[in-house]
């Protein structure tokens, strides 16, 4: 990630916070109880509850550490507050038409909330970089592994405040 900003929508930040709180406040304490109980049962070398619990605890701690760093560096950007809604910027839902007039709808979101299957693409992805700053009617070339593809911006929408 380096020095790049970690832009995120308010909903995306909330999802990170909910996951963090669930892991730190709920799952981790229960797991610590299980590990303490298993440790009290004697031989730890063949104690499945103890061994699995320690492994799971390391996974949870790693995820908690990752989430805390991502939230610390997050720059929450509310797409509804975008002053120029006639152009494509972070948080925009954009309808694109390719050369065969097949339409594709994407929403430009942060790296922590992207889901290509749902049309949520990272603001740093090739397609988002290509259409960033475009207005309705603009044609942009998107570099793809199989060659570049031309997309026309058909519609731009932002969430309501």
From TrEMBL:
A single Gene Ontology MF term assigned here is:
DNA binding
| Stretches assigned to the Transcription elongation factor GreA/GreB N-terminal domain | 6-76
Q: Cite the Pfam families for this sequence.
A: GreA_GreB (PF01272), GreA_GreB_N (PF03449)
SUPFAM superfamilies according to UniProt: FKBP-like, GreA transcript cleavage protein, N-terminal domain
Keywords on record:
DNA-binding, Elongation factor, Protein biosynthesis, Transcription, Transcription regulation
Q: Which residues form the Transcription elongation factor GreA/GreB C-terminal domain?
A: 85-158
Q: Which InterPro entries does the record cross-reference, listed alphabetically?
A: GreA/GreB_C_sf, Tscrpt_elong_fac_GreA/B, Tscrpt_elong_fac_GreA/B_C, Tscrpt_elong_fac_GreA/B_fam, Tscrpt_elong_fac_GreA/B_N, Tscrpt_elong_fac_GreA/B_N_sf, Tscrpt_elong_fac_GreB
Q: Name one GO biological process term.
A: DNA-templated transcription elongation
What HAMAP family does UniProt report for this protein, alphabetically? GreA_GreB (MF_00105), GreB (MF_00930)
Q: Which family does it belong to?
A: Belongs to the GreA/GreB family. GreB subfamily.
> Entry's PANTHER family?
TRANSCRIPTION ELONGATION FACTOR GREA, TRANSCRIPTION ELONGATION FACTOR GREB
Function summary: Necessary for efficient RNA polymerase transcription elongation past template-encoded arresting sites. The arresting sites in DNA have the property of trapping a certain fraction of elongating RNA polymerases that pass through, resulting in locked ternary complexes. Cleavage of the nascent transcript by cleavage factors such as GreA or GreB allows the resumption of elongation from the new 3'terminus. GreB releases sequences of up to 9 nucleotides in length.
Stated name of the protein: Transcription elongation factor GreB
User: Could you tell me which species this protein originates from?
Assistant: Allosphingosinicella indica
């Amino acid at each position: 990630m380096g020095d790049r900003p970690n832009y995120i929508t308010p909903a995306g930040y909330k999802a990170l916070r909910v996951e963090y709180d669930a892991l730190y406040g709920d799952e981790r304490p229960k797991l610590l109880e299980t590990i303490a109980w298993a440790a009290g049962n004697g031989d730890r070398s063949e104690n499945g509850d103890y061994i699995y619990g320690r492994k799971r605890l390391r996974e949870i701690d790693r995820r908690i550490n990752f989430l805390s760093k991502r939230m610390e560096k997050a720059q929450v950007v509310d797409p509804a507050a975008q002053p120029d809604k006639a152009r494509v910027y972070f948080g925009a839902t954009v309808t694109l038409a390719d050369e065969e007039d097949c339409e594709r709808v994407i929403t430009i979101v942060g790296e922590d909330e992207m889901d290509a299957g749902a049309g949520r693409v990272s603001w740093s992805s090739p397609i988002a970089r290509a259409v960033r700053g475009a207005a309705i009617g603009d044609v942009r070339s998107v570099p793809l592994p199989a060659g570049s593809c031309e997309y026309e911006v058909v519609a731009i929408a932002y969430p309501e405040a």
